[in-house]
Each structure stands twice: as structure tokens, then as C-alpha cells.
Amino acid sequence: xxxxxxxxxxxxxxxxxLFARNMLVCVLVYSCWIAIINYNYxxxxxxxxxxxxxxxxxxxxxxxxAPDELWSRQLTRTQKYGVHGFLMVGGTILLSxxxxxTFYYISEGYHLYxxxxxxxxxxxxxxxxxxxxxxxxNYSQKLTKYGRPVFFKFNHNFVGLLGYLIGVVSLCYAFxxxxxxxxxxxxxxxxxxIATILGVLWTMNAAIVSGYHQIKTLLVLRN
Length: 223
Hints:
8 helices
């Protein structure tokens, strides 16, 4: 049997992968379309930029390393790291600009009174840290006096995944903020949350598996 797995396994993963992507595309279109047709200057850009940062950029950055990603199979490991870094940096910039947008226009401290605002701020900070850790992981061979390469890679993986997950939580809470509630129906919001959760659960599987192997390696090195 080839290293690519059985036909049945690959077929199932392909279908699930396609389903997850369709769910996330629907959420992306839903969020951005609501923001466009009900255009409200800076707030619409907050919705659009943050959604773009999380869904197409960061989800693709995570799914890039999944073994069933057909397009990424054509890339070398080094090329994958490069694309991953580009997507993560791009997504973090979009998310940060979308967050700073609200910090500037909303009255001081207001964003800290909602779960959506708090989780969004935490996500932004963690994702910025993950970029720094990712840079360190990329040059981990030159930083061996500060720690083993797997240590830097694990830090990047853990902090990035946590920031992404909290960002998704913030997105789900966003669907129930006053602005979204005013322009959407309860049924559409519920579908958006369900689609987000189903899509995101699949995007994280490669990162979780990678983190698991990194923890095993760290434990072995410790012993």
C-alpha cells in the first residue's frame, strides 16, 4: 500500500475536506455580504477585515499541512513553510487592522465589555505572538542555546492554534452582537455558528496532530 493511504480513506478525507471548505466559504460570504449591503463605514470594514483574516487566510494556513491537501502536495516542505508564513502574517494583519478600527472609533474601553470584544483582543495578541514564535521556529537551528528546535515549533503551534481558536469563538459571538441581530434572522445566525464550528474543527486536525507529536518529542528529550 502506498504512503498516501487507501483509496477509501483518501475519498472520505476528500469529501470531509470539501464539506468543511464549503461551510467556511458560506460563513465568509454571509458575514461579508451582510456588511456590504448594510454598509456602515468603519464598522463594515471591521466585519470584512476580521472575517477575511480568520477564514480564508488562517484556515488555509492550517489546512496547508494536512496530508489530503491536493494543491499543497505539489510543494516542498520549505515552500509550505513560506506559504504558511505568508498566510498567517496576512491574516494577522487583516485581523489587527479590523480590531484597531474598532479601538479608534468606539468609545474607550467599550470593546472590553463584551465577550466578542474581549476574545477578539486576546486572539489578536496571541496571533501576533505566534508570528514572533514562528520567526523563531524558522531560525531555531541558530537559537539552540536558548532551546531545542522542537520547543520553538511547539510554542508557535500552540500559541497560533489557541489564538485562531479564540478568534473563531469571537466570530461566533459576533453573530449575536446588536448589529448582526438587527440585520439578520435568528435562523441564519444559528446556521452561521454551526457552519463555522463544523468547518473549523476539521481545519485544526493537522495542527493538533503536529502538536501531539511535538509534545511526545519534548517528553522524550526531557527524559
